[in-house]
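Suppose you are handed only these lines of text.
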Amino acid sequence: MSFPLSPSSSSFSASPSLSSSVLDAHGWDAGWAEGFAPYAAQGLVPGRVVRVDRGQCDVATADGTVRADTAFVTPHDPLRVVCTGDWAAVDPEGASDPRYVRACLPRRTAFARSTSSKRSEGQILAANVDHAVITVSLAVELDLGRIERFLALAWESGAQPTVVLSKADLVSDPVVLSHLVEDVEGIAPGVGVVPLSSATGEGVDVLKAVVSGGTTVLLGVSGAGKSTLANALVGEDVMTVQAARDVDGKGRHTTTTRNLFVLPGGGVLIDTPGLRGVGLWDAEAGVGQTFSEIEELAAGCRFQDCSHESEPGCAVTAALDAGTLPVRRLESYRKLIRENQRLVAKTDARLRNEIRKDWKRKGAEGRAAMAFKREGRLR
Ligand SMILES: Nc1nc2c(ncn2[C@@H]2O[C@H](COP(=O)(O)OP(=O)(O)OP(=O)(O)O)[C@@H](O)[C@H]2O)c(=O)[nH]1
Ligand SMILES: [Mg+2]
Ligand SMILES: [Zn+2]
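From them, the structure of the protein bound to zinc ion can be written out as follows.
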């Protein structure tokens, strides 16, 4: 996808008003303006990061989209690297690209996962997201465990999840389709499940209502139909789409960057590259919310620290016996709890401390550089 810079970017103003139709369309509100006030006082300009690519990012500002370097705000902690959806403070100094991102506003929400690498590291997939749309293709067999994993990360992020069952046109029998929807509803308490076809338009209006306010991120494995859906929601072909491989039906990882778009009916949409793995990242609360019916049952166990194995008065095993709680569901819950505990134990405190120290030092250097620049400007 090409992402042309606005021709007006050369008239980038050093004293912008803190509200504009561009910023508003990207989700700017009184809270962001308040958080930005100290940066505005330093002469910095607000903008929303619409795309990040190798140390540079595109930022939508009141005066158009500008390219900015992220060197000043790239700490070792990958959780704090500039991400699509962040609100950035851009230095308007200098007429030529790239400009510099000097700071990012604290995120309201962030969708994080651990990378599949052995050295467990967190990675932010999207920042300041209100709705997480987990896109699951009906062209392949449903993987309930994977949906639960996505749901745990979505709840943990602070966003409201929705599951889209894409390519519904490929399921010709309406009875089969409604069973598939029920299966997913059964593992997603508190979550809307929308069967949808970008090909026929079925369900697209239902989703349009969900995404018409706030920021939505599309998540899912490669080939799930995220970019096709993004094009349907935006109303034009903003993203490239590619057929899955014939051999195994797997996607081709067509999308490689996270891209943010303003939707015609209001709201903001972020399309993301297909994920190979979705490791949990410190998602204890998210796992609890994903399996809320199990946690509710557990509250009724006789012993507070019941392990739901063989204790008397266990409400969870009683539900298993009664057939109201599927064994698969409980096993999936246990698996994610264990995975999360392992991950938290691995990220040792010393490493976290080092990251924090380094971040502080960088911050101090950045502030010193800014002060120096400001003084230089005054002279
Ligand atoms: N039949 C049918 N095919 C669809 C639908 N939506 C998407 N597809 C097809 O699915 C394939 C993959 O679609 P993409 O939108 O590129 O998938 P993606 O999730 O963006 O994939 P990555 O960018 O690799 O993560 C393409 O061949 C699409 O035409 C649909 O509603 N019905
Ligand atoms: Mg894509
Ligand atoms: Zn129990």
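What can we learn from it? The first strand starts at residue 45 and ends at 53. The chain has three domains: 7-104, 110-271, 284-378.
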